[in-house]
């Protein structure tokens, strides 16, 4: 049975550009910045970042909670997970395209397509991918939607992933699923819209040759109120995944998607003005795979 969680947080890996990314997206979509956390001496061997430098910036756009993690060049987001944006005027599509494509890369040019009279697919200067399209907001219910693209060895796994995720999370359902009806891609997913924890997602199987796949560059944080919930999602999402990718609350599921299973109270601990508390908490969770909330609380309290 699925356990209750707080809204997801979408974590985007960056190389010291977190604040710049948050500022750009807020300027384009509206929203607000949240808290910023900073690196301590703890874990320098692992993360290689200077003490006092920016670690993570939380922000909100379009009703989504995001986090920009400034963690060096090891990973980078890519088009395997993109944000689909519904715009109700061509002028809005063009405005967002003009700003997001600067110093970025065009994946599919802005043009008329079968599914939208104005659509374009791009990768922005931070490596984040966007699908901008003219449409009706009422058809989706939210302006910005995380979208999975299953490619290469993951091609054909979209339906299985969607069914597992909707079985796992509360307030979840498959809104609709359109499949290829014939040809070499028969029965693979052309497009599906679904809800997890009352949040809208989309997914597609992507045929053809692609130079990207799911990585830690884009991960989904599952914000858990207690250890029981942490245990539940760690076990369910981790089953059949990559055991070598399990570290500090991170895991990869059997489809290659990265998740962070974290206690909701960890952020407040990391924001404590007492640097010694933050240092102890960081040292504690850096040594863990699945996060042990009781041990983290003890470290925070200095016990």
TrEMBL record:
PhnB-like domain boundaries: 8-132, 144-262
Domain of life, source organism: Bacteria
Any coiled-coil regions, as ranges: none
Pfam families: 3-dmu-9_3-mt
Membrane-traversing stretches: none
InterPro entries: Glyas_Bleomycin-R_OHBP_Dase (IPR029068), PhnB-like (IPR028973)
SUPFAM superfamilies per the UniProt record, alphabetical: Glyoxalase/Bleomycin resistance protein/Dihydroxybiphenyl dioxygenase
Name the UniProt record assigns to this protein: VOC family protein
Record organism: Candidatus Pseudobacter hemicellulosilyticus
């Amino acid at each position: 049975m699925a356990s209750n969680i707080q809204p997801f947080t979408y974590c985007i890996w960056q190389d010291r550009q977190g604040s710049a990314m948050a500022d750009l997206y807020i300027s384009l979509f509206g929203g607000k910045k949240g808290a910023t956390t900073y690196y301590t001496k703890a874990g320098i061997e692992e993360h290689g970042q200077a003490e006092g430098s920016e670690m993570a910036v939380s922000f909100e756009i379009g009703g989504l909670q995001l986090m920009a993690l400034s963690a060096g060049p090891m990973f980078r987001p890519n088009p395997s997970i993109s944000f689909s944006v519904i715009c109700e005027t061509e002028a809005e599509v063009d405005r967002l395209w003009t700003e997001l494509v600067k110093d970025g890369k065009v994946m599919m040019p802005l043009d008329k397509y079968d599914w939208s009279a104005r659509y374009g697919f791009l990768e922005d200067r931070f490596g984040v991918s966007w699908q901008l399209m003219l449409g009706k907001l009422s058809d989706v219910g939210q302006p910005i939607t995380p979208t999975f693209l299953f490619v290469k060895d993951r091609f054909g796994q979209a339906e299985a992933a969607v069914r597992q995720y909707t079985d796992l999370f509360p307030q979840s359902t498959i809104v609709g699923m359109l499949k290829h009806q014939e040809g070499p891609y028969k029965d693979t997913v052309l497009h599906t819209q679904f809800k997890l924890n009352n949040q809208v997602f989309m997914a597609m199987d992507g045929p053809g040759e692609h130079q990207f796949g799911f990585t830690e560059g884009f991960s989904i944080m599952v914000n858990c109120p207690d250890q029981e919930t942490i245990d539940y999602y760690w076990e369910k999402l981790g089953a059949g995944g990559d055991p070598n990718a399990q570290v500090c609350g991170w895991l990869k599921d059997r489809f290659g998607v990265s998740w962070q299973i974290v206690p909701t109270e960890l952020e407040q601990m990391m924001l404590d003005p007492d640097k010694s508390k933050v240092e102890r908490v960081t040292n504690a969770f850096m040594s863990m795979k699945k996060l042990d909330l009781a041990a983290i609380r003890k470290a925070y309290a200095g016990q």
